[in-house]
Design brief:
CATH superfamily of the largest domain in chain A: P-loop containing nucleotide triphosphate hydrolases
Mean pLDDT of chain B: 87
Order of helices and strands of chain A: EEEHEEHEHHHEHEHEEHEEEHEH
Radius of gyration of chain B: 18 Å
Oligomer: heterodimer
Structural class of chain B: mainly alpha
Largest sheet of chain B: none
Largest interface: A-B, 38 and 27 residues
Low-confidence stretches of chain B: none
CATH architecture of the largest domain in chain A: 3-Layer(aba) Sandwich
CATH class of the largest domain in chain A: Alpha Beta
Structural class of chain A: alpha/beta
CATH topology of the largest domain in chain A: Rossmann fold
Strand content of chain B: under 5%
Number of helices of chain B: 11
Strand order of the largest sheet of chain A: 6-7-8-3-9-10
Strand content of chain A: 25-35%
Chain lengths: 330, 233
């Protein structure tokens, strides 16, 4: 998982988990039946992203790392301790955890919830209150801190979950989709907080399918597919390996069967019914020729998005499987 | 801090708090001011108080486990025994306050003496502690709120049966020796005394029995909460 420059905060060797084992029901994410075996190491001071489409196994892996579930195989050390029944409570006090769905004590205010989580993790009352005040202000919740959490919107609830997870300044933060549902300003504030935790020496692990957030927040990224890590490295290295050409996502309507004929300079990356992702070295300059070719074949173009390559393209290059095509205004 | 959170949550749910106080009082009034024979009426009150405690503990636990809140709290590293103990303490206090109107109404309806009312209050507290602790065990086994209600009712009725609430043991029998030591036996006796029957509840034994169940629940808190906090298996 990237250069381990200090004592690893997380060391996982061969960990695996099988939802189907012993009649376990699949959890809500409906992820793969099995994840692993996975080797994984994260140093203090690093932000590592687990990136993959829905169902890749990110949340399951995070739950293993947060000690919510136990691996069926392999060894897991967190913050220098092997995870066992005897050490679990001690280790948990040093972890900040944001799950994919983060319920709160609905009738308590945002401030009360944050203080409660801080005190449950061992902070004295005054320290928990001060830390809660600081975090809620940083996340734009100061004005709503005294409203019951049940009145919060989805985005506010996610910000509150992040505050609750970080209030005790944990040396290990395990965050499942921390930026989902956040407006751009809140997303930037959340990413800044995460980077600050890492700068303060914490290890941070983020699971996300928000590739922009992963790119902005993470020092290293592991791409997950069907419960396995298929590649790991710095985001820019993973993206550079797929080439430098712009990607163009096209959605059209028409009666073309299969993939429309395209100009020679344009390479198809992923195709799906009425969706195409292509690679064009000329970028937006290739659009007139591309559109003319599609229109001549009776394709009514609904949307075109031109963008720089990102982690989705790295994923697609490695797996041949498509991430959802980007759609937007023509 | 868990006790404070549960306490605040219970008090701030004003509509629910009102119904939790009003419905038992209304049921108690309906039975007290009817022609129901007093032993039969005492049986109804004992079952009411016991179910209140078991359901009031099991169902919120299952709800919080299903929502993931329980898992989130336990992942903070709070000692499971502390979590269970604080939650029990808050729930028993809330239950006692919500059942106080019903108990007072019974005291008035049956013209109970202050001593009988006080004994009934103490027996109720011990009974609620035992019932709430039993509710934790029910929640561990139940996989849904419906199952919690079903298992809670079954376990409560069994516990009441073994406490001799539904029958009179033969004098000198094993049951006659053991029953006074079980929870809910003293609660039943105290309620009978409240309604005018000539019984004297063994409050010491009731408190001890309730304490044993509560301590055992706290002692087993780690495996119990681990089971509660896991995603569905």
């Amino acid at each position: 998982m990237g250069p381990v420059t200090r004592e690893p905060a997380v060391e996982a060797k061969g960990i695996a988990y099988d939802h189907a084992r012993r009649g376990r029901r699949r959890d809500r994410e409906a992820g793969p039946g099995r994840i692993g075996p996975i080797d994984f190491a994260v140093s203090a001071g690093m932000v590592v992203g687990l990136v993959g489409p829905n169902g890749a196994g990110k949340s399951t892996l995070l739950r293993l790392l947060a000690t919510l579930i136990e691996p069926d195989a392999g060894e897991l050390r967190l913050l220098g301790e092997p995870v066992s029944t005897g050490s679990r409570t001690r280790v948990r006090r040093r972890i900040g955890w944001v799950p994919d769905a983060a319920p709160h004590f609905g009738r308590l205010t945002g401030r009360e919830n944050t203080v409660l989580f801080g005190r449950a993790a061992g902070l004295p009352a005054a320290d928990a209150a001060a830390a809660a005040e600081r975090l809620l202000a940083r996340l734009g919740l100061a004005a709503d801190a005294d409203r019951p959490a049940r009145e919060y919107s989805f985005g506010m609830s996610r910000k509150l979950a992040l505050a609750e997870a970080l209030v005790h300044a944990p040396p290990l933060a395990v965050l499942d989709e921390p930026t989902i549902g956040l407006d751009p300003a809140s997303r930037d504030a959340a990413i800044t907080l995460v980077r600050e935790r890492a700068a303060a020496g914490a290890a941070v692990i983020i699971a996300t399918n928000d590739v922009a957030a992963a790119d902005a927040a993470c020092d290293h990224v592991a791409l997950l597919h069907h419960g396995r890590v298929i590649a790991a490295g710095r985001p820019d290295e993973l993206v550079a390996a797929t080439g430098d050409a712009d990607r163009i996502d096209i959605v059209w309507q028409g009666e073309v069967v299969g993939v429309p004929r395209l100009p020679a300079a344009i390479e198809v990356v992923i195709s799906a019914p009425n969706h195409l992702r292509v690679r064009a070295a000329a970028g937006a300059a290739a659009l007139p020729e591309l559109c003319r070719a599609l229109l001549e074949q009776g394709c009514a173009i609904r949307s075109i998005v031109v963008r720089r390559p990102d982690l989705r393209d790295a994923f697609e290059a490695l797996t041949g499987a498509g991430w959802e095509p980007e759609t937007g205004a023509v | 801090m868990i006790a404070a959170a549960e306490w605040k949550t219970g008090l701030r749910a004003r509509r629910l708090f009102f119904f939790n106080a009003a419905v038992p009082a209304a049921l108690a009034a309906a039975v007290a001011f009817s022609d129901s024979p007093r032993p039969h009426a005492a049986l109804v009150y004992t079952i009411l108080f016991t179910f209140f405690g078991v359901f009031g503990s099991a169902i919120p636990l299952v709800r919080d486990a299903e929502s993931g809140l329980l898992g989130r709290v336990l992942l903070t590293g709070i000692a499971p025994a502390r979590f269970v103990a604080e939650r029990l303490a808050a729930q028993v206090a809330l239950d006692a306050i919500q059942l106080a109107p019903a108990l007072l109404l019974l005291g008035l309806a049956y013209r109970a003496s202050p001593q009988e009312l006080a004994a009934a209050a103490l027996a109720l507290a011990a009974g609620l502690l035992a019932a709430n602790a039993i509710g934790v065990w029910v929640a561990v086994v139940a996989r849904s709120i419906a199952e919690a209600a079903l298992f809670g009712a079954t376990v409560a009725l069994l516990a009441l049966h073994f406490a001799g609430v539904f029958r009179s043991p033969l004098p000198g029998s094993f049951s006659a020796r053991v029953e006074p030591l079980l929870p809910f036996s003293a609660l039943h006796d105290a309620v009978l005394a409240l309604t005018g029957a000539a019984t004297r509840p063994t409050l010491g034994a009731a408190a001890a029995a309730a304490g044993v169940i509560a301590v055992a629940t706290a002692a087993f808190a780690a495996p119990l909460t681990r089971r509660l906090a896991r995603p569905a298996d």
